[in-house]
Design goal:
- The chain is an alpha+beta fold.
- The chain folds into two domains: 120 residues, 60s Ribosomal Protein L30, Chain: A (2-Layer Sandwich), CATH 3.30.1330.10; 157 residues, Alpha-Beta Complex (Phosphoribosyl-aminoimidazole Synthetase, Chain A, domain 2).
- The protein contains nine helices and 15 strands.
- The longest helix is centred in the first third of the chain and has 18 residues.
């Protein structure tokens, strides 16, 4: 049914039915002027984060399904809570929706949110809906809790720099999607199905596409010794620079220590681009980048160290070059946008 026929309040009723109360902490959920949550743990610190996804800026519905979009809208917020050392708890979602959309599309979007919320035991407690004249807009707000806040400002000289996953896969996945154009991949339960036409891709391509459409987020199990942390949303170089700026420190990373997948290397070779630039600048990997004492025992990849001053990348031959804060940044020209991925060599 078209939203112009369904109306705002019937849409909210569908939303309320879809996300019924699932936790005893929720006093009042969807349907009132505000959600009410009991504070069961008095010693816990509350975390709050928010992210927006705007059609034409953050996603393109010609190659993104509504299910994937809902999943990602929650995933990017969860990643922020993980980056602060917290556990995600309650989610609110705001939707600006063109009135000619079908209500089934919004059901699919809700389904994507619910699938990830279930995985991390997150309660969907409300939000807002309104008509949009210029494409679809999503705004997600997620609360979390922690006993110890981990910021970007605690890195110390001598700390090692770690990352929790391979880098560059999401950026390459986006490039592949743009090159194919107007092809949607249904990705659920690790199965891939092309929705728009008969088309086949190498398995390596499919994994990269999945990494972009449905980020593989995960928390660190033990954050006790971590001194600073950030999630890689805009690219390794720019996000590491944020840690250095906030900690008033330098850094040295080693090119051959940066973790990259075999799928990224093979695909980059096939299409004639440099995979290293994707790993350094690509963004939207949502891996956790953190610093900790060098002797810490933790499941992550060490790629460098924090120094007193200066920021450098060291190649396989030991040659240093300056580390510049390059990556995605809103309001910059096209060279700083995701379009840059088509011009990297």
């Amino acid at each position: 049914m078209l939203l112009s026929k369904l109306g705002e309040f019937n849409l909210i009723k569908k939303f309320r039915t879809s996300f019924a109360k699932t936790s005893s902490e929720i006093i009042t959920g969807i349907g009132d002027d505000a959600a009410a949550i009991s504070q069961a743990k008095k010693d816990a610190i509350t975390l709050i984060t928010t992210d927006m996804l705007i059609e034409g800026v953050h996603f393109d519905l010609s190659y993104t399904t509504f299910y994937q979009l809902g999943y990602k809208a929650l995933a990017v917020n969860i990643s922020d809570i993980f980056a602060m050392g917290g556990k995600p708890k309650h989610f609110l979602v705001g939707l600006g929706i063109p009135k000619d959309y079908d209500s089934g599309d919004i059901d699919e979007l809700y389904s994507g949110i619910k699938s990830l919320a279930k995985k991390f035991a997150i309660n969907i407690i409300g939000g807002d809906t309104c008509a949009s004249r210029h494409g679809l807009v999503l705004s997600g707000t997620l609360t979390g809790e922690t006993k110890r806040v981990i910021t970007r400002s605690g890195a110390k000289p001598g700390d090692s720099i770690f990352v929790t996953d391979t880098l560059g896969d999401s950026a390459m996945g986006l490039m592949l999607l743009k090159k194919m154009g107007n092809k949607k991949w249904e990705i659920r339960n690790k199965k891939f199905k092309l929705l728009s036409s008969k088309f086949s891709l190498p398995t390596s391509h499919l994994r990269l596409i999945r990494r972009h459409l449905m980020p593989e987020i995960a928390p660190l199990k033990n954050t006790g010794g971590i001194t600073s942390m950030i999630d890689i949303s805009d690219g390794l170089l720019i996000d590491l620079s944020h840690i250095c700026d906030e900690s008033n420190a330098g850094a040295r990373i080693y090119m051959d220590k940066i973790p990259v997948s075999q799928e990224l290397i093979e695909t980059a070779e096939r299409i004639g681009v440099n995979y290293r630039n994707f790993a350094l600048k690509g963004g939207e990997d949502y891996a956790l980048l953190f610093t900790a004492p060098a002797n810490i025992k933790i499941k992550a990849c060490r790629l460098g160290e924090i120094t007193k001053k200066g920021r450098f990348i060291v190649d396989e031959k030991g040659r240093e070059r300056p580390l510049k804060a390059e990556g995605y940044e809103h309001f910059k020209d096209s060279e700083q946008s995701s379009v840059r991925l088509f011009t990297i060599h």
